[in-house]
C-alpha cells in the first residue's frame, strides 16, 4: 500500500500545525497511509517547543516527523 507524504514548512505557528493535524484526522479515512513531515528553522523556538511537548497519543494514527534546519538567508548572499 502506498504512503501519502505531506511536507509542510512552518515558522512560529503551532496553532496552525495543530489545526492541520486535526483536519487530517477529521477528513482522512486511511490514516495509516499518511505521513506528515514538518520542517522549521533551528531558531524557531515556538515550533521546537510545540514538537517537544505535543501529545503524540492525540495523533497516534498519524506518522509525524519534524526536522530542524539551519536558517538560510539566500536573498542576502553576495555574488
Radius of gyration: 14 Å
SSE string:
EHEHE
Strand proportion? 25-35%
Level of helix content?
Answer: 25-40%
Structural class: alpha/beta
Polypeptide structure, described:
The protein has 79 residues and is of the alpha/beta class. It contains 2 helices and 3 strands. The chain has helices at 14-27, 45-53, and strands at residues 4-9, 34-41, 63-69. The protein has a 3-stranded parallel sheet with strand order 1-2-3, covered by helices on one side. Strand 1 (4-9), helix 1 (14-27) and strand 2 form a beta-alpha-beta unit. The radius of gyration is 14 Å and the shape is globular. The mean pLDDT is 87.
Describe, in short, the structure shown.
With 79 residues, the chain is α/β, with parallel strands linked by helices. Helices cover 29% and strands 27% of the residues.
List the main descriptive attributes of the protein structure presented here.
single chain; three-stranded parallel beta sheet; globular; 79 residues; 2 helices; alpha/beta
Topology:
Elements: E1 4-9, H1 14-27, E2 34-41, H2 45-53, E3 63-69
Parallel strand pairs: 1-2, 2-3
